[in-house]
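User: Some background: our group keeps a shared notebook of sequences we're curious about, and every so often someone picks one and asks for a predicted structure to add to the entry. Today it's my turn. The entry only has the sequence so far, pasted here. Could you supply the structure so I can complete it?
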Amino acid sequence: MKIIVTGATGRLGSLAIRHLLNKVPANGMAAVVRNLDKAAPLAELGIEIRQADYNNPESLQTAFQEGSKLLFISSSAADDPLRIVQHANVVKAARDQHIRHIAYTSFAFAEDNPFAHVHLATEYAIRTTHIPYTFLRNGGYADFFINSSLQTCIQNGVITTNTGKGKINAVSRNDLALAAATALTESGHENKSYNLVSNNPWSFDDLAAILTEVSGTSVIHQPISMEEEKSLLVRSGMPEALAEMTAFIYSTVAEGKMERTADDLQKLIGHTTSIKQLVVEALHQ
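Assistant: Of course. Here's the predicted structure to add to the notebook entry:
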């Protein structure tokens, strides 16, 4: 009986597998992937590779055979009704193949978030199976905000956003992957929901201060409007759709919609990676 990991070649899934390897032997896992070529590094680790697609129910039934636990990483499709169908395919296959524990990557504070309907629908679908579950309600990924592009901010001495004084509860993808591995390999996490966010939210003013400290160069945060931010991003070469999405996310930060906290992540893995450490890692990529 194996731990089955879907989305195993994605950034979160591959990190989760690395953490699982510290807890279970490689032959105790199976990686479910769409593209076999991308799975070569996992095969080299001794992990069984199984090909399946969320759009193909029969492939999921085969991929989940002889599985004991399932790390179900949510679909990245942009079409929400399609995602609901895809997720239903996964849940049904898990039930039919007698999976005994499902850890699902949901969305932080899902009941209060208008963008989390797909995740709530999936949670309810999982509940209908009566399979023990762990809902890993992940917050935003810190690498959306903290990445190698900060080098340019250091060179210019300024970070320009429309986040205002808003704070961000985003956390590292690696911490979230460790949380998933922990929930699947330790006892006591069945039928629990965890809001996996930073218990120490930070603002772009904080980020500018950390950049100043780490680089030795003065960096300030300059607030601008949402339209100014979008225009600035487009002029920098970002596609317009991505620039609009980025400016919109920044506006939700300014409105305080990304500052809600919880201690679940720290309690689950024993720590959360500090923003300063994430900055240092991003600048050395």
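Suggested note for the entry: Residues 141 and 170 are 5 Å apart (CA to CA). The chain has a mean pLDDT of 96.
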